[in-house]
Amino acid sequence: MYYLSQTIANQGEQGAKWEFDVKAVYGIFFLNFELGGKLRTDMILADRDTGEQISDKLRFIFVELPFFTKMKTECITGLDKWIYVLKNMENLKEIPFKEEKPIFKKLEQIADLASLSREERRRYDADLRAYRDHFAQINSAKRLGERIGEKKGRTEGKIEVVRNMKAKGLSVDMIADITGLSPAEIEKIQVQ
Questions:
Q1: What are phi and psi of 142, to 5 degrees?
Q2: 151 CA to centre of own chain
Q3: How far apart are the C-alpha atoms of 103 and 185, rounded to whole Å?
Q4: What is the pLDDT of residues 122-145, one digit of tens each?
Q5: What is the pTM of this model?
Q6: Which helix (H) or strand (E) holds 63?
Q7: Which residues pair with 169 in a beta bridge?
Q8: Do the beta carbons of residue 104 and residue 98 sit within 8 Å?
Q9: Strands 40-46 and 53-64: what pairing?
C-alpha cells in the first residue's frame, strides 16, 4: 500500500494547484503462496461495514501462482504466457514464447543479468558504461559537427547576401546595418 500510495502522491506537481485529478494506480502482486484461494484476487478500498468502495484510485491485484496449473502448450493468451513464465522461471532453461513476442526476449536478457555473479555483473556494468560513453561521445561529436555546419552555412549565406548587396550598389554602412557584419568584414568580401 505504501508504494502504491507514493505513486498516487507523486502525480501531484510541486507548486501546482492540486485538483485531485489523479490517475488510478493498480498494484499487481505475484505470490508464490496461497492468499485468497484462487488465481486472481482483486482488492479495493472499501468501507468495512457497508462494503462500499471508498476510492477507485487504488486497486490491488494478487495473482496466486500455485493456482496456475496450465502447461506451456495450453498457454494461449498473453496473460497465460506471462504467468507461465513467471511461475516457472527458475526452472526454465530458456524463456519460452520469445519467438512469438519480442518482450519475452527482453525478459530473457533481464533474467540473464540477474543470474550473473557479482564479479560478472561488475564487468558487465563496466563494459556497458564504456559502450554508453563511446556512444555519447559519437553523438556529441555529431551534434558539434552539425552546429559547426549550420554556423558555416549561415556565414556562407551572409557572404552571398553581402556580394549581392554590393553588386546592387548598396553602401558598406547600409550593408553593415542589414547584416550585422562590421564594415571591415564587408570590405573583405569580394563581388564575383
A1: -65, -45
A2: 32
A3: 60
A4: 888 888 888 888 888 888 888 888
A5: 0.52
A6: strand 53-64
A7: none
A8: yes
A9: antiparallel
